[in-house]
Please model this.
Amino acid sequence: MNSCYLKLRESIDSLSNSEQKIARYIADNPYEIPSLPIEDLARYCDTSKSSVVRLCKTLGYKGYKDFCMHLNADLVSFSPKDAAYSDILPNDSLRSIAENITQNNIKSLENTLKLLDYNELERAVSAIEQAHRVDFYGCGNSALVALDAQNKFMRIDKVSIAHPDSHFQVVSAANLTPDDVAVLISYSGETRDILDLTSIIAQTGATTISITQYGKNSLCEMVDIKLFTTSMETSLRSGATGSRIGQLNIVDILFFAVASRKYSDIKVYLDRTANAYRKKKM
Model:
């Protein structure tokens, strides 16, 4: 089940100003909310009841009562402290940095799993399984994730392309067909090059899948299938750290799900790849 608290927390930056005030109050006082009348919540946040309802619907709930019911159920088995990341500060000890980074990466994976929409995941796996060709697109650090995805799917004889160069990406995107799939990777969901590529791909009829942070963003609004990750928030935060861990995890899930379904067909290619790699060793 999706974590109601995590969905709220991860959506904050993508909300309107009035919705952000409400969301931050709820995030700071989660145990108070299930028994708090909507009128009081609106008053505490200096906003309106309609803004509260709008926030709940943005998060995928029918209204405030439905949201409170899911939040209450969530808090029974999930503590907001469980989702908190450890801060990394200047001059921390080596042991503290090693332990906190490891725990933050673990939490990034656990929180990503809690937000996973299995209906969307099923659609993504089925689309990739049936696709003639799968393109992976990313810029900067996300380009490294795209290359990792290409490497994995090539091992099972799935035609896969991932170009880190933006000019090559345009050429590849323009030549997709309705039988193909494009996976677009951008943590913010607002990377200009990726949005431009998505517009190009839309004209080809290819199925599009996004991997972004949870919440509303431009890329999610343009694609057919949406997959989400979460990332750490620390004083020395790096986009190359938490976001990459979540993205790689989603890629691994997609790869192993496709490989599992087609194992009898792709085993020969896995064996060939393993033998080829073996010859590269001393």
Remarks:
- The first helix runs from residue 4 to 11.
- The mean pLDDT is 90.
